[in-house]
What we know:
- The chain is mainly α.
- It has a domain at 5-284: 3-Layer(aba) Sandwich (Rossmann fold), CATH 3.40.50.
- 48% of the residues lie in helices and 10% in strands.
- It is built from 24 helices and 12 strands.
- It has helices spanning 5-8, 14-25, 50-69, 96-100, 120-134, 144-150, 154-162, 164-171, 177-180, 234-245, 257-269, 301-307, 310-318, 332-346, 351-356, 358-362, 376-385, 391-401, 411-428, 439-453, 461-474, 480-492, 500-507, 509-520, and strands at 36-42, 74-80, 140-143, 186-188, 201-205, 210-214, 220-224, 230-232, 249-253, 276-280, 283-284, 325-326.
- Strands 1-2-3 form a 3-stranded parallel sheet.
- Helix 7 packs across helix 10 (234-245) and helix 17 (376-385) crosses helix 19.
- The two termini are 51 Å apart.
- The model has no long low-confidence stretch (mean pLDDT 93).
Amino acid sequence: MAKNTELATESKAWPFQEARNLLKRVNGKTPDKGHVLFETGYGPSGLPHIGTFGEVARTSMVRRAFHELCDIPTRLVAFSDDMDGLRKVPDNVPNQEMLTGHLEMPLTQVPDPFGTHDSFGAHNNARLQTFLDQFGFEYEFVSSTDCYKSGQFDAALLAVLRQYDKVMGVILPTLGKERQATYSPFLPLCPDTGRVLQVPIIARDLDAGTIVYENEAGGQVEVPVTGGHCKLQWKADWAMRWFALDVDYEMSGKDLIESVRLSSKICRILGARPPESFTYELFLDENGEKISKSRGNGLTIDEWLRYATPESLSLYMFQQPRRAKRLFFDVIPRAVDDYLRFLDSFHGQEESEKLANPAWHIHGGTPPQEDVPLTFALLMNLAGACHSEDPSVLWGFITRYAPGATPENHPTLDALVGYAINYYRDFVKPFKIYRQPTDQERAAMEDLLAALEAMDPGLSGTDIQNQVYEIGKTHEFENLRDWFKALYEVLFGQSQGPRFGSFAALYGVSETAALVRRALAGDDLSAE
């Protein structure tokens, strides 16, 4: 695929803005290590959630934009802090009592509560990689445990030991007096229990590369800082990792702004330049609270994919990353239809517009071309109107609306049918509340019924919508949105839906007339 380097230098899409900043960092040249290194971080103390995916997706978008600007090689490392101690038991995993007995153990030493992997850390790492692989991300998985135990971090750990006092000078002012008395950037692993210890360091030997701490029995224990005998506290660990791996770019959430600032100071103390950073806003649950791996109070990866396409999830990550957004089930339908709209417009756009289109970033510059004649919202209403969760029934209506369309030649639409049925079954059908029309609404619906009965069955959705609109004006609805809301509540048992004309064209003019007739007769429209 030909590059649009000149246009990319002017694009206002946020991934290109980030990529241009990164290109300035390296002065437009390949670094001595032979590539530019992107990193994403994951704490496997709980099951991966969509926020974790979002960081990899967004970083990959910046990486792709960078490739459009230049030919400098890049790598993306997905780093797992799996040597961290288990500080609390997540709410959403089995065998809670067993896990409680392994608190403070490195996550790669905690037994897997699911019984499928060697450790809890390994289980969560595998879950993360499976999902990233499913999306086709190009990345390299790196384990903190492996880096510590293999000696890959040894030189950087010794550098931290040499700069111990300066590192302490960065961190201590941010702590309370009680925590200051016990803080050390080094966390020894207890030789007896294997637990990650948070104990004060009473002596250091720079030549030997060791530290000395006092154990619970009052004895002094000397351990190397290398070879996996110690790990670092979070902020020092992050800085050490940037230094050891020579990371050029890493984004993080708004809740880590202070951590980025402190880790950047430590990275400079170690003699390295901290990576370029991008701060994204946090995802919120249905109550406006931050989502958490341990609480499990947001959407899981699998839940989104039960109701919508992977591309719709990528779009949700692309849009307005610096704005806090709710990440709950009710955001899914719009994300699906927004994605379809961007994809539909892409191939008719000018090249400069394409680079700003989310579809370009979702598909790595090469979005597919496929006609999807129906919206997700329309498919959900179709499932509700025909009271069927059978894809073949919905396809019967679809083929009449879009002659020649089949599941085989419209695979995206076929997938949407399945997603729409799942979403309708779980989130729409159980909460439908039908009502009787008011006198004003009844009179308007009687006119609508007459119009439908006299209407050409092949009339377009737009023409039908115009007639419905005029009926609302004739009956003097103060706000025509109230007229359409009434139709949704009386006919569908919900307060909103797709364009009514589009629905009628899909469902069929005579079938829509029958639906209105039943509503006017007081029939139970919720009946199967």
